[in-house]
Amino acid sequence: MSEKHATMSLRRRSATSPAQAMPFTNQSSKDQYYAVMTVSSDKWIWAFCLAFRVVNSLLVQTYFNPDEHWQALEVAHNITFGYGKLTWEWKKGIRSYLHPLLFALLYRVLGFLHLDTPWFMRKAPRVLQSVFASFADLYLYKLSRLIYDARVARWTLFCQLVNWFMFYCITRTLVNSLETVLTVVGLFYWSSFASSSKKHPSGSRKLALFIASLACAIRPTCAITWLYVGFVDLWQAKNRLKLIFLEVIPIGLSVLGLTSILDWWMYGSMVFVPLNFLKFNFFSAGGDYYGTHPWHWYFSQGYSVMLFTFLPFSLIGIFRSKDWRISGLIAWVLGVYSILGHKEFRFVLPVLPLSLMFSGYSLAELSDSDSKRKNTKASSRRPSRAQVAILFLVATNVPMALYMSLVHQRGSEDAIYFLSKEASDGKVKSVLFLMPCHSTPYYSSLHSNLPMRILDCSPSDNKGYLDESDRFMSNPVGFVSTMLENSSLPSHLVLFESEEKHLRDLLVSHSYKEVKRFFHAHFKVDRDLQASVVIYTST
Predict the structure, then answer these.
(1) How many CA atoms does the CB half-sphere of 321 hold within 13 Å?
(2) Do 467 and 460 form a contact (C-beta atoms < 8 A)?
(3) Higher confidence at residue 14 or residue 103?
(4) What broad class of enzyme is this (predicted)?
(5) Which residues lie closer than 8 Å to 226 by C-beta, 6 or more apart?
(6) Which helix (H) or strand (E) holds 494?
(7) HEC secondary structure over 354-402
(8) Is 428 or 380 the better-scoring residue by pLDDT?
(9) What is the 3-state secondary structure (H, E, C) of 12-28?
């Protein structure tokens, strides 16, 4: 295959580099100097990104999506400590154990060091994810430098670190966060394979295929991204049959086989996760059980909100760079996900860094234009357009990132953290969560083997079926009255203020009293305003 067609969009290079400013006797010395300087620079950039993301992870103290806890940490806690609730997905075999095992290893280390305290159990998983996230930052920088130049790469890194949604989501233990990391790293190695410039270290297409296969094993829908990447290059490749039969299929089947063996061992039976996942989410539209959105939601709302004020810069960058392959990849992913009824922000997180790369391109051009206009004294006395753009992006994204990470929907995590400290002191005997299912973390954060119960919301094949969560939300008083009469009373109850105001008299009549109230949100999201999370205890 020719180097010209084997990669996704290899375009502009840096016009000036440190190596070019130095006198060299031959091209080899010049290339060696450039390689050393690049590696050294990359190490410092990674160290900075790592420090930034660790702080990022410590600042994220809010509840975003149940899967962060219920499909990763809860499973890992069950593996490591022998207790933890497995949701219906793990009974139907539509999730791979590969992702939770990363955090199971972390829990094993914490337990061995006797650091499995409430604070470490709450913070350590996100700190681990921050390490992975730092590699996404680094490789996005390297990908931007490879496709464009170091100038665009620096602006791209700025966009990646400032964007509110990336700050809000990338250090969370969602499988989509790790999928994003693997996608960016894989795209870099895929693109660098065919780099004709010796200034950049040659990547490996086989390594890219391995990373892509790993990403698909962790999250089967990642195949949407890599089908586009593979098809675009295979369409122009001369030796496509060699590529398919000697690289794609052997590497893909090897990773698929190893992860399948791992899942068979963990499940204790022959379970083929990718097929079960696709059958439920694509062929049977099982995800629609959790809500649907109109086809245009990603374009009109979801993805636009994720980009926020970076949106105009990304659009300008797309049209100015004319990099239609990468912009086509973004459009392809958004288009395919738009076909599905059930839509979530996190599903399209893996292509957000690519959009931010176009924002970096736009800002780099703006900065260059400002440099050319610095000839007059009048222009030097006022802020440049790039400076105004930086101020605008920081002023709009940083407050949003901090509010969403520190304030909005924090009550769920604060409540379980309070209970974990109370449980470690022996003050909690049992807990009942009277709220929509999966509204809080569970055993992975409580870290005490106590009887606990949540309201069930497993999907059913029966049309019109109302699960426990739905029945509770439609008639809180009647549902709880029946539950308290027919079961033993727990020592603690956890519920949202929106339901607590209806149940207050009933709970008092059963000898419960409020012991703690945590702020949760200023505005409603999916349901009525859930302003606070309230904990009641039996007297």
Answers:
(1) 34
(2) yes
(3) 103
(4) transferase
(5) 186, 212, 215, 216
(6) strand 492-496
(7) HHHHHHHHHHHHHHHHHHHCCCCHHHHCCCCHHHHHHHHHHHHHHHHHH
(8) 428
(9) CCCCCCHHHHCCCCCHH
Percent of the chain with pLDDT over 90: 73
From the centroid of its chain, how far is CA 344?
Answer: 11
DSSP state of 222: G
Q: How confident is the model at residue 294 (pLDDT cuts 50, 70, 90)?
A: very high
Give the closest residue to 313 by CA, choosing from 271, 281, 351, 358: 358
Q: Which residue has the tokens 């709009």?
A: 396
* Residue 483: exposure state from Cβ atoms within 10 A (0-12, 13-18, ≥19): middle
Contact 306, 165 (CB under 8 A): yes
Conformational region of residue 14, where left means phi above 0, alpha means psi within -120 to 50, and beta covers everything else: beta
Residue burial 270-284, b: 16+ Cβ < 10 Å; e: rest: ebebbebbeebbeee
**Token output for 208:** 């890219």
**Residue 519: strand, helix, or coil:** strand
Separation of alpha carbons 265 and 270, rounded Å: 8
Query: What is the pairing mode between strands 452-454 and 431-434?
Result: parallel
Taking the chain, what is the end-to-end CA distance rounded to the nearest angstrom?
75
The pair of structure tokens assigned to 532 is 């606070």
| Nearest partner of 71 among 98, 110, 111, 109, judged by Cα | 98
Of the CA atoms within 13 Å of residue 479, those in its CB half-sphere come to 19
Segment holding 495, helix H or strand E: strand 492-496
User: If you ran DSSP here, which 8-state letter would residue 95 be given?
Assistant: S
Q: Is 343 helix (H, G, I), strand (E, B) or coil?
A: coil
More confident residue, 373 or 435: 435
Where does residue 524 rank: exposed (0-12), middle (13-18), buried (19+ CB within 10 A)?
A: exposed
**Strand 452-454 vs strand 512-519: parallel, antiparallel, or unpaired?**
unpaired
Task: Single out the residue of 57, 226, 204 nearest to residue 133, CA to CA.
Answer: 57
Q: What distance in Å separates the CA atoms of residue 87 and residue 75, rounded to the nearest whole number?
A: 9
Q: Specify the amino acid at residue 164.
A: W
> From CA 328, how far away is CA 323, in angstroms rounded?
8
Residue with structure tokens 């207790």?
A: 83
Confidence class of residue 434 from pLDDT cuts 50, 70 and 90? Answer: very high
pTM over the 0.70 mark = yes
* CA pair distance 483, 538, nearest whole angstrom: 15
Q: What are phi and psi of 513, to 5 degrees?
A: -140, 150
525 φ, ψ (degrees, to nearest 5): -115, -75
State the DSSP code for 328.
H
How big is the chain, counted in residues? 539
Nearest to 332 by CA among 457, 408, 195, 225: 225
For 126-160, what is each residue's pLDDT tens digit?
999 999 999 999 999 999 999 999 999 999 999 99
The CB density around residue 115, as the number of other CB atoms within 10 Å, is 12
Q: How confident is the model at residue 397 (pLDDT cuts 50, 70, 90)?
A: very high
Query: CA nearest 355: which of 307, 302, 396?
Result: 307
Catalogue the E-assigned strands of 214-364.
Answer: none
Beta carbons of 186 and 211 less than 8 angstroms apart: yes
